[in-house]
Amino acid sequence: MKRLFTFILTILLLFIASVPAFAQNIPTMSDEQSTAIQAFIEDARRVSRTPGIAVAVVIGGETHFFSDGVANRETETLANADTLWDIGSSTKAFTSLGILYLEEQGLLSLDDSIADYLPWLTFQYNGQPVDMQEVRLYHFMHHTSGLQMIVGSATGSLQGGVETMVDTELGFFPGERFTYANQNTTILGLVIEMVSGQSYESFMTEHILHPLGMMDTFANRERAIATGRRADGHVTQFIFFTFQRDVSSEEAIDMMPSGYIVSSTRDMARWMEIQLGLVTDIPEIFHTIIPRSHEAGRSIADPNGYLYAAGWIVSADQSFIEHGGTNWGFGTNVYLFPDEQIGITVLSNLAGAHGTTQAGAAGNIKAILDGDLDQSYSIFVRTFQSLDITFTVTTVLGLVLAVFFLILGLRRRKHNERQPRTKKRIALIAFWALMVLAMAVPMLLVSWIIFFIHSFLTMGIALALLFGSVAWFVSSPQRTK
Fold this sequence. Notes:
- The protein has helices at 2-23, 31-48, 91-104, 137-141, 158-163, 182-196, 200-209, 221-226, 249-254, 256-259, 265-275, 284-293, 361-369, 383-415, 423-438, 440-445, 454-475; strands spanning 52-59, 62-72, 77-78, 85-86, 123-125, 128-129, 168-169, 234-237, 241-244, 262-263, 307-308, 313-314, 321-327, 330-337, 342-348, 351-352.
- By secondary structure, the chain is α+β, with helices and mostly antiparallel strands.
- It has two domains: 31-377, Beta-lactamase; 384-475.
- The strands form four sheets. Strands 3-2-1-15-14-13-12-11 form an eight-stranded antiparallel β-sheet, with helices on both faces. The protein has a three-stranded mixed β-sheet with strand order 6-5-7, with no helix packed on it. A three-stranded mixed β-sheet has the order 9-8-16, with no helix packed on it.
- A hairpin with a 4-residue loop joins β11 (307-308) and β12.
């Protein structure tokens, strides 16, 4: 009996001794890290002039919420974990999960032809009709369909939005390479409606959002607005100016499956916990399809080596999974680190050149969790911010110089007599006239950037005026020697 008692006591002591070592393997957040994260988002909001920011951090079995600023400037309603934000292109992971749900139910297959569901949808490639029987659902899932990002007119219906894509000229033959485009996921949203016989909102709410326990996430923007908790969207342009901006209801309906789900950081925390496998109280089907949504399948690597899975951008070893999003007025980052059981969501009501979230603020927060507490937000290291600053400064200098050369030309015409034009002067005039025309070319080639940075357009106008005023100056009569 004494030996048995000694044996049990020894086992118990060994177990107790092992608990601290075991606990060390579970990631946690220290008070210093929590303070540093709050300080960072306050710095990011101030520097970027974002009205409001909300952050959710999942680390192990813990969830932490941070916020700063306001959801609504007029009412001065503070941003918090229950504020509702448009989550932009992070919506794609929800829509793609809906497709995987239908596939798991045996109602479709990613290998199916798009013609099986939308027989009226047609594409062109090099001016010739594409055999739509060869365009598969997985091409849209992984953004290898050949569709390119385009901005079309709003119709106020999901089917109407897809109908505007009929006879679209593809940028490459389906399956050749990867190009990210919202239109891919919008088409998948319409497929969901065709297969389920329900509206996109009804299907997503009944079969995806509510079964996952995400009661504060909406596939209908108007319902989110009706709660009184949706943040107002804003954009910042020309370095200093922030103003309220939102998309029309028609555009939100057209593109809902690709970019207009509305959620809170509280619900997004649960979404991240589900993705990390930390939640068990969900229907069994999701334990199967959630891991599948992280698999790239037939995806093709982008230039940075990342693969596009089912609404997620993933590293080759799936140690890093993320998706950001930008709508008019809102920005989103969602970062997942499955091996470390860490998830970070940053939501803000600012988009455009100086939006905090699309600039990768979640990366700064991860750095804090990795031990680098000294993080600061700088607009000069963010792509769109740096471009906006460059374009704005060029706009101002271009306009100033345009006025300068215009005045010089007027002085020449006032004080000098018209002289015969030499071949050299004619060549100079032609050169500067061509430079004016050349300003239209980059506008056509990269017109998508105007969606984010208005100063790109004003820069083009300013340079056109500058080159025009130089041509005016060169053509003005010179003083006779």
